[in-house]
Design a protein that fits this description.
The N and C termini lie far apart (70 Å). Helix 1 crosses helix 2. The protein has three helices and two strands; from the N terminus they run E-E-H-H-H. It has one domain. Helix content is 54%, strand content 9%. With 87 residues, the protein is mainly alpha-helical. It has a two-stranded antiparallel ribbon with strand order 1-2. This is CopG family transcriptional regulator. It comes from Inhella inkyongensis.
């Protein structure tokens, strides 16, 4: 792998990837439509996927650590909810 430096000062790696021909055709067309290189487009798509996955993992961890009001005996049963809260 070769290493380059982007305009933002971040280290960039040059890698080789293998994909189906139909995917390669799509990414070439999409890169041309966006007026960018295939390499830059694939890098941007993967960076966005990484940010999305990281945000999801943080949100899930936050949700799992929150206190829940519905724990224990205070949770109404399905039958009680269907009958109404007056009983």
């Amino acid at each position: 792998m070769s290493e380059f430096v982007s305009n933002s000062g971040m280290a960039l790696r040059n890698i080789t990837i293998t994909m189906e021909e139909s995917v390669a055709e799509w990414v070439r067309m999409e890169a041309a439509r966006r007026d960018t290189s295939v390499s830059r487009l694939v890098g941007e798509l993967l960076a966005e996927k990484m940010r999305h996955d990281d945000a999801y993992a943080r949100a899930m961890a936050d949700w799992q650590q929150r206190q829940r009001r519905w724990k224990g005996a205070a949770t109404p049963t399905r039958a009680k909810r269907q009958r109404g809260s007056g009983e």
